[in-house]
């Protein structure tokens, strides 16, 4: 049984709280406060999602406020990360006229928590250093820092790595849907935890935001290959890969539609919900429900997944030819810190990685099974 040890978390909370109160140095005092804040979030998450003693407070914003809030937030994202927009545009352009069938449902399979942990461990064990050792360190604490929870029906593949800031402590929760996805979800979240241990507090470097999912999405793809082979379930591995491609392409099309909207309408016109709805209807022929969905989607919630995904796929292609090289490049990417937003992209390119370069090959590989893996035809 895997569950979080709440006594440990509460004791840590009390310890840092005491230190914060006693500390005179303002820099250290702030640091302790940040540890406390992250612990508080973890306790909160536990109570709402894992313990269910408290219900989540759902703030029912009026439609008008939400729309405007999303637009303002989108403008901030475009201002901060707009230099990455051409990568998203290219991805959308390449596939916008390709009909991609919605991937089939994953078959329900019975897998135990132990089974999920075992396969994730087998996967990370066959990787090079520092990934193997860092995972081993993490797994030592799984009994008290990992939790599984059953996902509601409408939610797929959710999980989190909860980092206690300025410490080497990471709590993980993994959503379970009783499909092949469950293996992948732990591989994904464990990857975030590994990255945090290798480059502490990197998650708070907002200039690196576009690349925060590179490691986790790369290990998802490679881990899927590995676990698909081990469990003799290549079919479901392929569906998981198709699902993610399909979802991120959908996200890219939403971002592009929004960017078009924001460049076509003036700030004043954007305050008029009717006009926005009319624009989506006329320009893209969208239906009411879809317009609603797009209007309430914050692009900052999906933007980084696309850039990271396209980068991860490039690493995957390197991995297929040279495993060591791909892992050493990934390690270099993980260690990058303290750069400006544009400099992160420059560094990635300096490493010889062009996000999106192999996306058509990858599409052919997973949708048409035309590719090769490890010299074998798929
Ligand atoms: Zn993630």
Question: Features of this protein?
Answer:
378 residues; mainly alpha; 3-stranded mixed beta sheet; 16 helices; 62% helix; binds zinc ion
Walk me through what this model shows:
With 378 residues, this protein is mainly alpha-helical. The chain has 16 helices and five strands. It is globular, with a radius of gyration of 22 Å. Helix 5 crosses helix 8. It has a domain at 6-50.
* Spatial arrangement of strands, main beta sheet: 1-3-2
Q: Which ligands accompany this protein?
A: zinc ion
pLDDT < 50 runs, ≥5 residues: none
Report the principal-axis shape: globular
Query: How many E strands?
Result: 5
Assembly state here? single chain
> What's the pLDDT, averaged over the residues?
91
Q: What sequence of helices (H) and strands (E) makes up the elements?
A: HHHHHHHEEEHHHHHHHHHEE
**Largest sheet entry:** 3 strands, mixed
Counting helices, strands and paired strands, the structural category is mainly alpha
Treating each run of at least 4 consecutive H or I residues as one helix, how many helices? Answer: 16
Helicity, in percent?
Answer: 55-70%
Beta-strand portion reads 5-15%
Radius of gyration: 22 Å
- The end-to-end span amounts to 37 Å
């Amino acid at each position: 049984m895997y569950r979080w040890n709440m006594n440990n978390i509460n004791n840590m909370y009390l310890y840092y709280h005491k230190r914060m109160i006693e500390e005179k140095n303002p820099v250290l005092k702030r640091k302790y406060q940040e540890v406390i804040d992250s612990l508080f979030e973890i306790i909160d998450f536990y109570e709402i999602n894992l313990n269910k003693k408290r219900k989540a407070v759902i703030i029912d914003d009026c439609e008008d406020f939400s729309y405007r809030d999303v637009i303002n937030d989108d403008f901030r994202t475009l201002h901060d990360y707009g230099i990455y927009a051409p990568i998203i545009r290219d991805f959308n352009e390449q596939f916008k006229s390709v009909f991609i069938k919605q991937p089939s449902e994953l078959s329900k399979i019975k897998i135990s928590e132990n089974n999920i942990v075992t396969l994730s461990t087998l996967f990370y064990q066959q990787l090079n250093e520092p990934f193997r050792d860092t995972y081993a360190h993490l797994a030592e604490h799984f009994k008290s820092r990992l939790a599984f929870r059953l996902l509601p029906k409408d939610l797929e593949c959710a999980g989190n790595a909860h980092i206690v800031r300025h410490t080497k402590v990471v709590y993980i929760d993994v959503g379970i849907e009783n499909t092949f996805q469950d293996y992948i979800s732990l591989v994904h979240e464990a990857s975030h935890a590994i990255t945090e241990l290798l480059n502490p507090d990197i998650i708070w470097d907002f200039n690196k935001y576009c690349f925060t999912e590179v490691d986790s999405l790369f290990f998802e793809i490679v881990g899927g290959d590995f676990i698909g082979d081990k469990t003799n379930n290549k079919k479901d591995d392929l569906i998981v890969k198709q699902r993610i491609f399909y979802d991120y392409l959908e996200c890219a099309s939403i971002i592009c539609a929004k960017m078009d909207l924001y460049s076509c309408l003036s700030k004043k016109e954007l305050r008029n919900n009717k006009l926005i709805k009319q624009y989506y209807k006329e320009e893209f022929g969208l239906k009411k429900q879809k317009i609603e969905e797009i209007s309430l989607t914050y692009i900052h919630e999906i933007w980084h997944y696309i850039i990271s995904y396209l980068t991860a796929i490039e690493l995957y292609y390197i991995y297929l030819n040279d495993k060591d090289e791909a892992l050493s490049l990934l390690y270099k990417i993980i260690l990058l810190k303290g750069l400006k937003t544009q400099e992160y992209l420059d560094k990635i390119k300096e490493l010889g990685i062009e996000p999106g370069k192999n996306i058509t090959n990858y599409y052919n590989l997973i949708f048409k099974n035309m590719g090769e893996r490890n010299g074998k035809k798929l």
